[in-house]
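sorry to bug you again but im stuck and you know this stuff better than me. below you get a single protein, a line of residues and a line of whole numbers that encode the local backbone shape. mainly i need to know what kind of three dimensional shape the backbone takes. anything you notice is useful, everything is just below:

***
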Amino acid sequence: LLNGEALCDLDYSEDSKADADVNLVMTGAGEFVEVQGAAEGAPFKKEQLAAMLEIGEAGIRRIFELQREALEAG
């Protein structure tokens, strides 16, 4: 969460200024293995957490897709 906006895969310059940091681990079936998060300053709202989970899940699904493509091409 940076300036109130949910972002995925922040670089160092963004991450060092983040309002909140959430790390996710998911299975290929879409189940959560780990959800770890913390506000880095002011607390965040439930709606912001939902946005972070949504964008994080989308990022993980994209990684899974790219991995499948690489395995099929290999």
In short: The mean pLDDT is 95. The helical segments are 12-15, 46-73.
